[in-house]
Amino acid sequence: MTVTILAPSPDCQAREDRLEARGANGKNRASEGQEPYPESVNPVLETSQWAMKEIDIVRLNDEGIASAAKFIYAQMQRESYTPRTWRTHPLHLCPAEPFSWGHPSTRACLDWIFLISSLNFSFWSELEGLPGRYGVEWREGWGSDKFVVHTGYWSLVAAVDRALEEGVPVTDPSFYASESRCPDELIKHIFCPAAQSTECIPLFSERIAILRENGRILCERFDGSFYGFVSAFRDRYDNRGTALQLVKMITEYFPSFRDEATFHGRQVYLWKRAQILVAEIWASFYESLPFTGRAPVHPLFPSGAAIHELTMFADYRVPQILHHLRILSYPPALVKLLNARTPLSPGSREELSIRTASIVAVEHVRQAILQLRARDDRGAAGEEGSDSGSDPGVEDEVVSSVLIDFYLWDLVKRAEDSANGVRGVDTTPMLPIHHTRSIWY
């Protein structure tokens, strides 16, 4: 089947214009009129709180937040949903255990996650639920003999895994940066759709441009791998860096991860793919250790990841379930737009309101779950007649917006197969996702 190369979108062209203006090395970003923030302050949350109130379209539902927090907390406990759950997804490429910096799987996993995160955007389709939707046929998972058609985000993962199985070094930055070793025609083959699909992967030419750019940056500055970038991060922070510091360093060097908007002259940071890149690294290398009441030492963040400093990843899928769970409230005019599947431009008031409100909402859910855990800990301590002795680091990792986002994304994917959506909690009818075609998410 012929793959059609789409013309560059206005969003991609705007990105290229910004890159030309600021330079690809990412230096001196503060001089571009962007507000400076302390190392431990996430500008995503700070600016999203401001933008949500300023735009005032999507609002938070305190009653829905309280109800959903109880439900999410109970379900995550019941399902033993932890950072280690990331490794249970059958298509994920996982590093060997026990961890070793010198093991080949460490570099392979880091390069795999970086490539996936570089291209993790815009999988929605007008043909959702129909056989003609873009999909990739490959194994159900590594080691499986069953072949299925993967759609949505999983189509990207399946395409990359399939290429690796075919012997194509698709996760090697020196390979995908090279137009001679990895010509556009080969990239077409890597993302070739299943026989039943009548459409191709969206924003194909933009994906090629991002591959080339990110590959060049890694080859020119970081010894040709994301492993080299992580090594530079460890050196910069003397092996004491946090997850947020790694996010900021990614946006410093890689323009295609600078998911930002301007509203009323103020910069609004969203950083969906930069944060999920770091979150998946954190989860994939999360150690499996006997529970001692102390947070395990993470090999990339030995002084503590401070993962609670990251926000949820503002895409088009998680806001859908946040509204379904009554965490977000939409005005009738926005509901009408969504039901009509009206395209929302990147950075428009409606689109920015949905994304920033989602970021703030999940932080409120996190705070509500922390209160529930504190109540349970007090109860347990009262029964035992002593302090529970839990490490705050454990609380930060168990109750983070990152893990809540992971759970909500898995939950909404399961709910797609149910006519009634999520059960066991008060909900409102599931609306369509917001339709924004963008390289940012």
Molecular structure report:
Helix content is 47%, strand content 5%. The protein is built from 16 helices and 6 strands. The chain has helices at 10-22, 43-55, 62-78, 104-118, 153-165, 173-176, 184-190, 204-221, 226-236, 243-253, 272-284, 318-324, 332-339, 349-384, 392-398, 401-415, and strands at 59-60, 135-139, 147-151, 260-263, 266-269, 328-329. The strands form 3 sheets. The protein has a two-stranded antiparallel sheet. Strands 2-3 form a two-stranded antiparallel ribbon. Helix 12 packs across helix 16. The longest helix has 36 residues, at 349-384. It is globular, with a radius of gyration of 21 Å.
Secondary-structure blueprint:
Elements: H1 10-22, H2 43-55, E1 59-60, H3 62-78, H4 104-118, E2 135-139, E3 147-151, H5 153-165, H6 173-176, H7 184-190, H8 204-221, H9 226-236, H10 243-253, E4 260-263, E5 266-269, H11 272-284, H12 318-324, E6 328-329, H13 332-339, H14 349-384, H15 392-398, H16 401-415
Antiparallel strand pairs: 1-6, 2-3, 4-5
Helix pairs in contact: 2-14, 3-14, 4-11, 10-11, 12-16
- How much of the sequence lies in strands comes to under 5%
Low-confidence stretches: 1-28
Q: Span between N and C termini?
A: 27 Å
- Helix segment tally: 16
Helix content: 40-55%
Question: Major sheet: order of its strands?
Answer: 1-6
Rounded average pLDDT: 90
| Total beta strands | 6
Q: What is the overall silhouette?
A: globular
Radius of gyration: 21 Å
Structural class: mainly alpha
Major pleated sheet? 2 strands, antiparallel
H-E order = HHEHHEEHHHHHHEEHHEHHHH
